[in-house]
Structures are given as structure tokens and as C-alpha cells.
Design goal:
It is a single chain. The protein is α/β, with parallel strands linked by helices. It is built from 15 helices and 16 strands. It folds into two domains: 336 residues, Alpha/Beta hydrolase fold, catalytic domain (Rossmann fold), CATH 3.40.50.1820; 128 residues, no CATH class. α5 crosses α13. The longest helix has 22 residues. It holds the Pfam family Peptidase_S10.
Length: 551
């Protein structure tokens, strides 16, 4: 998922005794030791000390499965394994863990699409997307409530994307079973650009190993994974791998406006506040559907609210009262509370204040979820109810599945976050292409815009949950609508919206709608790439997104 604030302990696997790592031998000459000989000696020393190691030799554990999609039975091969990334001298530097699902009966070198999935954090493994979204198997979820403890409802996923694309889930370095190798420091991968670089190398390695260079290629990131996707799309293209499509789920492309003293973050949150107040029935004149209140909030946020915040302390009392009153009507908060907050309501305060009279809080990742604090008079929620409600089920399901169904066994602990590793520190600086320059806070929408200008066939689909309070959809619209695309490129950008939170797939109705939208989008992206000329932009008088216009 994301889990930038959710730091969970390591899970140690109680498995069979460790099997010695299979490391290829290298015959060095003379008195100097080869890289592989040094690595072997290091591995032996660590093994003698009882350290569980990532393999240098690439592992593959294969199993068979089947899923029925729209009445069609799809047989597939599931592969849990590792990709070894090497530097330009051939020295192994990283072992990235992955789980791939490939349709049976398709030969290497196929033109069948392939999609690489990953979560965010930064530093999160991919089991959130893996267990909940478009794999051939899924943890079944329903209402926004606590998922009961084991046994979990896990099984075939009729909304899988396997009918459209092969699927590969990648774990970020330091997370899951992904580890640095040899004397390479983990910090070499902990940064905006460092992270995008290792993902690019791993995708290139996978495509080379399994003959997928001629396959239409897509990347699918969630949360910080969308930050990664902006940089990754450009880096892959710069290395000779032009993508067919980028899927952005619950996006945060630009961290710059989250700095203290800037008002854009409050503007970005306002439509999400309105949607949440609508869901919890906190509006006096509640419209029939959430899209209506969202449209009203967009107009207010881009108009009177933006103008009021821009005036800072010079705003007149009359204008402050008028804006607070209208904001109250949209968010369900009292005008007095809004004025005392200087028209700038932080997320934590909104989570605590909206349902304060019923002694309940609302979730951050999904504001449909409600929690209860010991201190009902507090300033912020004591925990995130939407995270607490699902984490145990997702973690438990994955740990059982990866070891007993996929058969990947190791004594290395599966890290639920790279933040649990020693020496964790993230380098937030980013070198953007062109005029983007060096950024202290990344905005990889700059990179994605450059990739779209360079590749007229590159399609981008933004998937958004109305109740996502971690990465508000209005902020996504702002970032992607400021990529400065030409009219011909704007037609390659589309937005979709669902009655769900950050993990939109938790809502089964939203998951089904997303599958329908993605199926049509994949068909369009693949067919456009086969045309002799790039697709043309639609008329700007129409809704290019095919859904609620983004502002």
C-alpha cells in the first residue's frame, strides 16, 4: 500500500532449515580474488554466523493455478522468485523479489501485454496490491469494517486483469524479500532517484530474462508508487524501453506543496472533506450523489476558497465569514471551528472533528471507516481505523500464500517496510528532466510529462477514490493537469473515480468497476500502439476523461 506512517514489526518465518544459497563460482586468476569469490567468502562467513541471505543466483518457485473470468477458464503459472541486478562490471548489487502470473500456452517473446505492479511507502512491499487488487487470487473484502481474524476469505479473483495482461508484483528494495547484495549498502537504493533506478534495472532484467522486450509494457503504482512511476516511466524510456501505459492509483506526484506555510494542500483536501461529509450524512442540504457535492467543492476550492487563502492575514472579516459559512456547508464542520483554524483545517483535525459529537473518528486511508479513541476530546485520532481494520488480514493471508501455495521458503524475515531495516533514511532530492532541475521535494509529474511528450503513444490512467484522505484526488488532478501537455497529448490522459478510499479495491463494487475501466483502457492502449500514426486528441469541448471532469 503506502504505509508511510504505519511501521510494523518484522515477521520471522518459522520454516524448515535454510538451504545453502546457490552462488555461481568464478575462476579468478593470479593472486587477486574475483568479485564472486569475495561474495562467496562473505556469504560463508555470514552463513556461519547464522545470517539468512538473499540469493545471488536467481530463484524461481513455480506453481500452477486457474481462474475463471467472464466464463472463460484461464490457466496460469505463478512464479515466486528473485531478480539479480548487476552493475556495469557485472557485480551483483541487488536481489529483488517478485511474484509473476503468466497465462499458460504463451511462448517467450510474446506480444501479450505485461504489467509491473508495486506499492509505495516509500519502502513498502507489494503484497497490498497483490492480495487485494488484480492478481488471479484475492482476499475478499466488503463493508468498511474490521476484517475478522483468521481464517480469511481468500480465493480466485474474477476481477483479475490476467485476461488482459501478464502480471508481475515487485517488492521495493529493503522490503519483503528484496535485499542488497555483497558490500552494496542498502542506502544505495533509498531515495527518489535511486529507487526509480533499481526498479528500471529490475524491469529490464525481467524483460531480458523472460523474452518480454516485444511485449506491450505497463507499470501500475499505488500511493508513493505513483511518485516512482513518474520517474520510472521517463527512466525506462531514456534507456530504450518506451511504455504503452502508466496506471496511477491513489496518486501523490508532488511533495512540494506539503511544506508548512503553503496553502495548496488545504485546497487539495477540500473536495475530499466534502465527499466524506456527504458519506457520513453531515450535510444539511445533502445532494443525491457524491459526484454532485464533489463538483460543488471543486468550484468553491478553485474560486472563493483559493482567493481567500491567497490573501493570508489581510483577508477582511466579511470575506472570512462568507468563506467559512460556505466551507461549513460543504464539509459539515462548524463555521466557528473553521474560522478558529484560520480557514485551514489540517487533515488530522478534520478526522477528529467531523464525528466528534458521536465520539468517533474517521480513517485516513479510507474515510468511510470509523474508529473510537480513549480521549474523545483529543486533537487528532489516536490511530487510523482504516489501517487497523485490514492490516492483519492482508499480512496473514500473504504470509500463508507465499510460503505454502507459492512455495517460496527462506529464513529471511519478510519485511513489512524497508523502514524496519538498519540505517533507513530516504533521499528526497530528485533530478527531474529538462527545466525540472534538481528538486528538494520531488514532483515526478514533471518526468511523466516529459515521457508523454517524447512518446505520443504513452497512455496514462489516473484511478482515484473519493474517500482517500492520504492522497486526495483533487491534488492528483492539480498535479497531472500541470504537466503542460499539448492538446494532442492531453487525449492520452484519463481520470476515473470510485466510491472508495486509498485502496480502492477494498470496495468490491469499485473493484469491479475498475476492472471494467481498465479492460477498455488496455484494449485502447494496445490498439493505438499498432496504428501507423499516433492517436489524435478528442475535441476539447468534450470530457476527455470519460468521467467527472477534473476541475
Amino acid at each position: 500500500m503506502h504505509r508511510s506512517l504505519l511501521l510494523l514489526p518484522l515477521l520471522s518465518l518459522a520454516l524448515s532449515p535454510a538451504v545453502a544459497q546457490d552462488m555461481p563460482q568464478s575462476g579468478g586468476k593470479g593472486g587477486d580474488k574475483s568479485v564472486m569469490e569475495q561474495a562467496n567468502e562473505t556469504a560463508k562467513d555470514e552463513a556461519a554466523a547464522g545470517v539468512a541471505l538473499a540469493p545471488v543466483a536467481e530463484r524461481e518457485e513455480k506453481s500452477k493455478g486457474a481462474v475463471t473470468v467472464d466464463g472463460r477458464r484461464l490457466g496460469y503459472t505463478a512464479t515466486a522468485g528473485t531478480l539479480t541486478v548487476r552493475d556495469t562490471e557485472g557485480k551483483p548489487t541487488a536481489s529483488m523479489f517478485y511474484v509473476a502470473y503468466t497465462l499458460d500456452g504463451v511462448k517467450p517473446g510474446t506480444k501479450r501485454p505485461i504489467t509491473f505492479f508495486y506499492n509505495g511507502g516509500p519502502g513498502s512491499p507489494s503484497f497490498w496490491l497483490h492480495m487485494g487488487s488484480f492478481a488471479p487470487v484475492r482476499l475478499r473484502t466488503a463493508n468498511p469494517e474490521f476484517i475478522k481474524p483468521a481464517p480469511f476469505d481468500f480465493g480466485p479473483n474474477p476481477d483479475t486483469l490476467l485476461d488482459k495482461t501478464d502480471i508481475v508484483f515487485l517488492d521495493a528494495m529493503g522490503a519483503g524479500y528484496s535485499r542488497s547484495l555483497g558490500d552494496t549498502k542498502p542506502a544505495a537504493f533509498y531515495g527518489v532517484d535511486e529507487d526509480a533506478d533499481i526498479f528500471a534495472k529490475a524491469i529490464i532484467r525481467y524483460s531480458t530474462k523472460f523474452g518480454r522486450w516485444n511485449s506491450p509494457k505497463f507499470i501500475f503504482g499505488e500511493s508513493y508508487g505513483t511518485t516512482r512511476s513518474g520517474a520510472l516511466a521517463y527512466q525506462l524510456q531514456d534507456r530504450g524501453m518506451a511504455l504503452n501505459g502508466v496506471v496511477l492509483l491513489s496518486s501523490i506526484m508532488n511533495y512540494g506543496y506539503r511544506q508548512p506555510g503553503l496553502d495548496q494542500v488545504y485546497i487539495n483536501y477540500l473536495p475530499s472533506y466534502a465527499a466524506t461529509a456527504w458519506y457520513h450524512n453531515r450535510l444539511q442540504n445533502r445532494p443525491a450523489d457524491v459526484a454532485t457535492i464533489v463538483a460543488q467543492a471543486r468550484a468553491f476550492a478553485n474560486g472563493p476558497y483559493m482567493a481567500a487563502l491567497a490573501k493570508g492575514q489581510t483577508i477582511s472579516p466579511v470575506e472570512r465569514d462568507a468563506v467559512a459559512t460556505q466551507m461549513s456547508q460543504l464539509t459539515g464542520l462548524s463555521a466557528d471551528f473553521i474560522k478558529r483554524a484560520n480557514l485551514r483545517v489540517d487533515l488530522a483535525r478534520f478526522q477528529k472533528e467531523l464525528l466528534r459529537d458521536s465520539r468517533q473518528t474517521i480513517g485516513r486511508f479510507d474515510s468511510r471507516y470509523m474508529g473510537v479513541d480513549a480521549d474523545a476530546a483529543g486533537e487528532r485520532p489516536e490511530t487510523d481505523a482504516s489501517s487497523d481494520a485490514i492490516s492483519g488480514a492482508f499480512i496473514g493471508t500473504f504470509m500463508d500464500y507465499v510460503t505454502h501455495t507459492l512455495g517460496y521458503k527462506t529464513e529471511m524475515p519478510y519485511r513489512l517496510s524497508a523502514r524496519d531495516s538498519a540505517g533507513w533514511a530516504w533521499n528526497w532530492k530528485h533530478e527531474a528532466p529538462g527545466r525540472g532541475g534538481e528538486q528538494n521535494n520531488p514532483n515526478t509529474a514533471v518526468d511523466l510529462g516529459a515521457a508523454m511528450r517524447g512518446n505520443p503513444y504513452l497512455k496514462v490512467l489516473s484511478l482515484n477514490g473519493y474517500y482517500d484522505m492520504a492522497t486526495p484526488f483533487f491534488g492528483t488532478e492539480f498535479d497531472l493537469n500541470h504537466m503542460l501537455l499539448e492538446p494532442g497529448q492531453q487525449g492520452n490522459l484519463a481520470f476515473r473515480y470510485y466510491p472508495a478510499g486509498h485502496m480502492t479495491y477494498l470496495n468490491p463494487e469499485a473493484l469491479h468497476a475498475m476492472k471494467r475501466d481498465l479492460s477498455a483502457w488496455y484494449d485502447e492502449a494496445v490498439s493505438d500502439a499498432r496504428r501507423a500514426t499516433p492517436p489524435q486528441a478528442p475535441s476539447l469541448s468534450g470530457d476527455v476523461a470519460g468521467d467527472t471532469p477534473p476541475g
